[in-house]
């Protein structure tokens, strides 16, 4: 890990926990070509930095390529991410779309803006995976996302379901992976700061206003009464998800 200099506790934790999850769920195989979905936000930025380091550790060859879909609110928003990829020798595909403005237009009367935008983004990411012959698509969901999704599924859908660390698509042609799934957002923020990553802010008008952020707010309010409750809930749901994913891999 010499090339990366001395890592602090948060940086080491991100690299180690992502590696452990990858091993435990057999996320990667030799020759994996990973498309890394990077929004420019803190989670996916730390994910690409973590995967770059893991690439130099895993005992078999893997390839990384960054995919960024600019939603079209600000067509130059992704420039710091593009510069960072270039400095780090990463192949990357940047694309400016109109998914964001369309999500708030008459075209989208039925669904929430978030649903519309993320559905189109996901579809485009899948197309890019096919175009670039990618075997894995990595998303930057964290343990906090897992816990929020778990409660959302229960409260809105009446079912017990989380977020898988690996999911097969198109008859196994593509594996969607979430290497950061068992890492707390606080740790990821601390690692991002230590790596001095040029995080970009999301210019979407709905970014702080979605159903997900509302449930996230309720949970934060609950955690504010006791860090122990947060730790216990996060550990319980994280362990439940890991056991489930191990049994499926
Ligand atoms: N515009 C985008 N281009 C490419 N990938 C994206 C984009 N937006 C989101 N993603 C991918 O989907 C994941 C989950 O998206 P979400 O909108 O929930 O982001 P988030 O939790 O705010 O994470 P981040 O801090 O990475 O933006 C991201 O971590 C990233 O991997």
Care to describe what's here?
- With 249 residues, this protein is of the alpha/beta class.
- The chain has one domain (2-248): Rossmann fold.
- The chain has 9 helices and 6 strands.
- It has helices spanning 9-24, 42-55, 79-87, 99-103, 113-131, 143-157, 185-195, 211-225, 227-248; strands at 33-37, 63-70, 91-96, 136-138, 166-169, 174-177.
- A 6-stranded mixed beta sheet has the order 3-2-1-4-6-5, with helices on both faces.
- A hairpin with a 4-residue loop joins β5 (166-169) and β6.
- The longest helix has 22 residues, at 227-248.
- The model has no long low-confidence stretch (mean pLDDT 94).
- The chain binds adenosine-5'-triphosphate.
- Adenosine-5'-triphosphate binds next to α2 and β2.
